[in-house]
Design a protein that fits this description.
The protein has 127 residues and is of the alpha+beta class. 20% of the residues lie in helices and 31% in strands. It has 1 helix and 7 strands. The radius of gyration is 15 Å and the shape is globular.
Length: 127
C-alpha cells in the first residue's frame, strides 16, 4: 500500500521542498530472488527512502546498501552519512522524477557534493 507524507525541512532542496507530498512505496523483501548485495528488491542506490530516525520520519538519499540496512544522507549534506537498519526503513519514494530515484539520483547527489566543495574553496580563497 502506497502512503503519502508531507515534506518538512530543506535538506533535500531543490528536489523536495517544504510542503511537497511524497508518495512512499513499501519495500519488498525477497532474499532468494534479490542479489546478495540488496535484501530489498525495490530499493537501489540513489533512491530516496523514508525511515524512522530518533523518533522522526526522515526522507534522504540511499548512498550504500548492505545486508543489514542502508546508509543515507541528505542532498544538502547537513546531516552526516548515517546507518539505518532495515526495520526502521518505511519505504522508498515512488516518483517519475529521475533525480529522486536510482542511478541518476546518485549522480545528482555526487555532483551537488562536488559543487558545495568548490563553493567552500572559493569562499576560503576570497577571505
Amino acid at each position: 500500500m502506497i502512503k503519502a507524507i508531507k515534506v518538512k525541512g530543506s535538506s533535500m532542496k531543490p528536489i523536495f521542498k517544504e510542503g511537497d507530498i511524497a508518495f512512499i512505496s513499501p519495500l519488498s523483501f525477497h532474499p532468494f530472488i534479490c542479489n546478495l548485495q540488496s535484501v530489498a528488491c525495490n530499493l537501489s542506490l540513489g533512491d530516496c527512502a523514508v525511515y524512522n530516525f530518533e523518533g522522526q520520519n526522515l526522507l534522504h538519499r540511499v548512498i550504500k546498501i548492505v545486508l543489514n540496512g542502508i546508509w543515507v544522507q541528505d542532498d544538502g549534506q547537513v546531516m552526516p552519512l548515517h546507518f539505518i537498519k532495515w526495520s526502521n526503513v518505511l519505504g522508498r519514494v515512488a516518483s517519475r522524477n529521475p533525480l529522486k530515484n536510482g542511478f541518476s539520483g546518485l549522480i545528482y547527489f555526487n555532483l551537488r557534493k562536488i559543487y558545495r566543495n568548490i563553493l567552500r574553496v572559493e569562499r576560503i580563497e576570497i577571505e
